[in-house]
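Changelog note: in this version the structure field was regenerated for every chain. One regenerated record is shown below for reference.
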Amino acid sequence: MNTKLPPIRSLLFVPANRPDRMQKALATEADGVVFDLESAIPRGVAAEARANVGHALESLTQDQPAVFVRVSAVGTADFAPDTDACRHPSLTTLMLPQVTGPEEVATADAALEGIDARIMPLVETASAVRLAYELATASERVAYMGGATGRHGDLGRSVGFQWSPEGTETLYLRQKVLIDVRAAGVPNPLSGLWGTLDDLDGLAQFATQTRQLGYEGMMAIHPSHLPTINEVFSPSAEEISAWRQLIAAVEEHETHGIGAFRHQGRLIDHAHLLTAQQQLARATRLGLC
């Protein structure tokens, strides 16, 4: 795992034709901000939006969130000019929509030659779900990826599922994509968004389920969702303390030649040590310990 990559719990979308909103997004508690050059901007403003992205990347400071740019799909007339507009050292990740095959990820990789940016293929089609592992391994730049779940969005149209707050219709899709992404070694799996603006209880339940599946974070369409998402995807002080206690206990027992033992009502062995160390390392990258 590349620990130099910025860990992303919350990824906030903002239309790139609105420089005022772009600056406001950079001042939020989002770990990452997506300047959207694709579906969030009206027709006829692409050139202006690209200029906004270039200006924002040029003026970005180190204390601001990681910047993703969602460009138009590979194969469209807008892909090349969109990508050229965000070729800047401040770009964290190129977000690639409507991906159907690994060759599109390879095309994006080639378009980023010369800059150290990552790629996030969006899982928005049935083909992307089926080929998630191939997409994730198509380029070493793929660092963020996961199952999209937007209400009445692209994936729903492609697969044909009917959205529900419980998320049962997307559970397999999210699990399948997550396993493929983890098997490919993608360090920061991100799942889709919660599309209901005012239902924060529903958001909390969905985010909790998503975290329990194994995702590291999820996308957001409104700043009001950020506190809930960040809380759900952040380990608590109690969890951090428990991991430290477990690590200390395993190390102490191993010095006495004991590999498995009872700890706080559980049977603990070396595998639990590795998990606790992994989780503690993630908490450190998030700046929580």
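Spot check on this record: The two ends are 19 Å apart (CA to CA). Residues 10-232 form a domain with the TIM Barrel fold (CATH 3.20.20.60).
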